[in-house]
Structures are given as C-alpha cells and as structure tokens.
C-alpha cells in the first residue's frame, strides 16, 4: 500500500471530522425518506413492531457510523436494506422467545367491521396474495421483497450473499407461484 | 426471427427488469416483436409484477404503524460522535484498515510526510471525492462545449452544455450503445454523468487516482479509472484537468468489446451546435423552409402540416427506430406511438407542443416496459456447415461473434431506413403527393433522398464487410431480378422487401436465426445476391425520386 494512499485516507478522516454535520443531515434525510419502507420490510421478516422500529433506528445509526469511518457507500438505499435484512434476522433470532409477527394475520384479522364492501374485498384479495407469498421459500420471499423495494439483482445478491443470476432464478420461481393469485382471491 | 427459440420466463423476467445485457436484450426484444405467444407471457409477468406492487401498497396501508412516533437520530449521532471523540487519536484512525497495517513507527514518519504532501501540494485524489469536486466545479461552469464521440467506425461531434437547446438526436447505433452502458448520452463527457454511472453500481473497484499528461494540451490530468463486474460497462475512465477539474477525455469499455470514447474538442467545428458526422452518421438536416400549405390553411390541419411534422421528426432523428406514428385525424396532426423511448418523446414534445393543430400523445406499452434499445448483434452459433466454414474462415468463434455484431449493427441501421421509407410511401401515396405544392414536394423528396442515400451507404457497407469472407467460401452474385416500378412509392415497397430478405438471409447465415436453408451451401451466394438486389432497388428508387 503506497504512502500516498495512506495519506489520502488520513486526509479523508480529517475532512470527515469537519463535515460531521453534513453527514448527519444526509443520514437524517435518508432516514425520513426510507424509514417507513424499512420498518414494513422488517415486519415482513417477522419482527414485532416495537423491535422493527428500534431496528430501523439502529440501521440508520450504523449507516452514520460507517460514513463517519469513511466508508464509501455509493448506493445508500441498497446498503440500508442489506443491513436491515441481515440485522433484522439477528434481531428476530433474539426474539425467539416471543411469537414472530405475522403480517398475513395482521392483514386478515384486523377488525374491519366498519370497512366498506369494496375495501373488504380488496383486503380479501390482498390476504389471498399474501398467503401465496407465504407459500414461497424463504429465499424467494426475500428476493421478492427486496425487489419490491426497488433493489436491482446484484444489490439483492449482495444482501443475501448469493449471485445475481440466483436472484433471477428465485424471482422467476416466485413469479410463477404468484401468477394469478390476486384473481383467485377475488373468486 | 420467428425461428428463434422461445425465451423462458426467467429470461423474460430479467428482460422486463432491465437485467439482461444489451445484446441478449435486443435478441429478446426482436423475438417479442415477432412472437405473440411470448408477448402474452410477458403480459402475464407484467400483471404479476403489478399485483406485487399492489400488494406492497396494500401491505403498507394495512400493517400496523410504528408504535412510537419516530424520534430523531440526533441523540444517536451524539453518542456515536462522543465514542469517536473518546477514542484515542491513534485508535480512531486505526479504524482504517490500511492505517492499521501501517502502525509501525517507521511508517508514521512516512505517513506524516504524506499528510504534509497531501495538504500542501496535491488536491484530494480519491476517486469519489475528486468526482464530487468536479461535479461541484461543473455546476458553476455551465458553458457550451464540443465533444467528439467515437465508437467503432462512427465518429461525430456534438455540442453539449448550457445554451444548447436544439440538439439533434444521436445516431441510433451510438444511442443504443450508451443505453446499453446505462450512461448519460446527452452529456457523456462530464463528471456528473460519470458519477451517476459510478454511483449506480453496487460493486466496483476504483483504481488509485493517477496523474497523467493531458492528451491535448500542456499540463496534467487526474485519471479516474473504475472497474466493475456489474452491467455492460466493464471499465470506465475519466480524465480531469488538474487545473480546474474539467473533464478532458472519457472512455467506456463495454463487455462486448465495444469502446465508446468521448474527447473534448478545443476548437469547435464551424457552424456549431448539433451533431456533425465525421464518417458515416447522419448529416445535419437542412432547415425546412416555410411554405404555403398544399391545402388551404385554416383551423384544421392539412397534409402539408403532416409533412412539416414528419420533416421535424426527421430532423431530430425520431423517424428512425422508434415507432412514432403520424396521422391526420379530426383536423389535427396526431403524433403518437407505443413504446417510444422517453428521450425521443421529450424531444418530440419540445419540438411539436407549441405547433398549432398538432397533438402529441404517447402510450406506454402494457407488456414490455424495460425496453433496452439493442445495439449489437447476437452471438452466432455455428450450427451448420456454412457457419462452421465461415467461422474457420474468420479465424475462430470470437472473430465470428465480432463479425456478426458489426454486420448486424450495420444491417439494423439499414432496416430502420427501410422502415422510414415505407412509412413515407404510406403517408404520401401517388394521389396524395400529387396534391402537394411544389415546395412541399421538394421537402418530401429531400427526405426520401436522405433515407435512400443512407440506405445505399449502409447496404454497401454490409456488402464490403461480407464480400471477402463470402467470396473465399466461393459465393457469387447470381442472376438478379430487374428493378422495376414506375413510381417511387411502389419502388419503395421493393426496397423494403429487399431489405427484409437481406435481413433474413443474413440472420440465417450468421446462425442467429435457424432457417430451413441454413445448411445450404448456396446461402452465402444468396446473401450476396439479396444485397445486390437491394442496392439495385435503392438505385432505381433514387432515380425515380430524382425525376
């Protein structure tokens, strides 16, 4: 490693110290923009709401720490979901003593006695689709949810530790399984 | 194309997700154009994608909101800042792996030297930091400049920057290369474009920034070089002047071995603004003169207005490749189409929205949304004796593949001209043309001549590419049918059919499309004959247009 490179990194550290406020602003903006998506993604992983909310905050603080250390994060959204996914699984393992959060039951069982008929029907369809999603393998589900959050195949692959082509294959299988599920729900 | 094996759902999904390499994507797109069955499969996939989107939206609405209001992160920030502050100096900086390795006492001295060197002499040279600074510098230096874009045998000059409003479209082949690279083709030689591409990559490797001699002027440049295993670009390079960080030269190396280079031009070409072709690309179109309408002008649009719209589309290159439709309906010239690229849509809106009696409205395709304009040909598979012989003649599979790419690209350009010509014949049949004023007829014939001259050049290019190899295989031009047709409209139909025949035979010859006669030893001769017929038809049609 060249002396020049060492110098560059140290200069970067000095700069980062000076730009801590700018970093905080950047992370805060990302937090406000993305936190709801990350929170709901964590619910679908099975985290209970309170834990999911804590986890979201932790993910963004990790982002701040990494940026402060000078890590070059080119795609923050991809990074956030990757970390949220991996950290979320750890949290879920730790909450083993509690029942995991069941997003499907939530969709189906939340009281909707006051809901108009159209909404009930839509909820029924969503519930049906959710059951089809639940029938997917874990990897298929993870690929699907991360894809729904707008991540590209290589980013999903990086989050899950698999290749982009494997992501493509999992998504293909998921799509085949989900095909027509909304229509079935309306029958 | 219909002989192409049906792509499976995985391939189609990757296609609509924009995850296929350009060549493969083009192959699938062309198959979809021909195959209703696969288009149906894509529509089903799109429906499932739409269901997923709907599901996500509903899930977001129905799942419980966070139990607590979101607290701001400032406390967490303060905690992290404090932990950084509380760490001893050496420990804080040893979070950097490189610095950890350099903890030895002797290295510290070298390190201090480097710091002094960095702070006093060299600007920050880390690629990302340098790019950010260059982008900031660009923001306060919005000047018009000229660049040369060079790829393969195409080289053109383009004006970019502030004040450049009437920019012509890039030639389709160059545009598709940029699209393949996911790189901004409007202003490729800019730190902003490089950074946008750079930041879109999940995995990449930046080389240490080097200082190199400025290729054009006395002075030096920073050289940023990025290598990635993702997407169609394998490596990219940008040279930034060390004096003011303005980009001097850029280069994209695509995985299919295509290279796009863009260089700053210090002395802009006379006359300025729009694309200026240096070798094979479109010349700048002459401005269409204002002229009286063929039909009495009034509140409703006439065929003359339609011609004017077509001429405008021709000037911005929107009549090539993109499925833009121009019809005269309800007293208006209606401009529309399904699946027209957003960039072309925007250009058309810019040019035509202000015109009276013209309505511009595009539809989005329901099935194929992730159209990646194809640029290159398809990997040839030497599945017959002719292909095997051609491969041997060219010197191996890689050579055949490269040859296939070049030939099919040239042929694709020719086909886009053939389609444009056929559209003109359909818009202006003999009886409609006879109603045009003399000046309108001149405009129409200028457009026809332009298309024919390009088509002739492209056919000749394909012929000269093929001739050495096919002659070596014993191919000859066989007896040709004579070119006929008394009006240019009917002659254009011959040109179109001849272009299609060339395309089909070429695809079979190069192993891209299986064909009944793919094993025929006559195939090389048939290709050369089809090309000769096309050229004869183009010549005949040109003569009729010139009458």
Verbal overview:
The complex is a heterodimer of chains A (187) and B (547). By secondary structure, chain A is mostly helical. Chain A is 78% helix and 0% strand. Chain A contains 10 helices and no strands. The model of chain A has no long low-confidence stretch (mean pLDDT 79). By secondary structure, chain B is an alpha+beta fold. Chain B contains 18 helices and 12 strands. Chain B has helices spanning 9-16, 22-34, 36-62, 74-86, 89-93, 97-101, 105-120, 127-139, 172-181, 191-199, 303-315, 342-352, 385-394, 397-427, 430-434, 438-472, 488-509, 523-546; strands at 145-151, 154-160, 205-206, 210-213, 220-227, 233-241, 247-254, 259-265, 276-277, 325-329, 332-338, 358-363. In chain B, the strands form 2 sheets. In chain B, strands 1, 2, 3, 4, 5, 6, 7, 8 and 9 form a 9-stranded antiparallel sheet that branches. In chain B, helix 14 (397-427) runs antiparallel to helix 16 (438-472) and helix 17 (488-509) runs antiparallel to helix 18. The longest helix of chain B is centred in the last third of the chain and has 35 residues, at 438-472. Residues 119-124, 269-274, 276-298 and 365-382 of chain B have low confidence and may be disordered. Chains A and B meet through helix 1, helix 2, helix 3, helix 5 and helix 6 of A and helix 1, helix 3, helix 4, helix 6 and helix 7 of B.
Topology:
The complex is a heterodimer of chains A (187) and B (547).
Chain A: H1 3-18, H2 20-44, H3 49-68, H4 76-94, H5 103-109, H6 117-134, H7 138-148, H8 153-160, H9 164-178, H10 181-186
Chain B: H1 9-16, H2 22-34, H3 36-62, H4 74-86, H5 89-93, H6 97-101, H7 105-120, H8 127-139, E1 145-151, E2 154-160, H9 172-181, H10 191-199, E3 205-206, E4 210-213, E5 220-227, E6 233-241, E7 247-254, E8 259-265, E9 276-277, H11 303-315, E10 325-329, E11 332-338, H12 342-352, E12 358-363, H13 385-394, H14 397-427, H15 430-434, H16 438-472, H17 488-509, H18 523-546
Parallel strand pairs in B: 11-12
Antiparallel strand pairs in B: 1-2, 1-8, 2-9, 3-5, 4-5, 5-6, 6-7, 7-8, 10-11
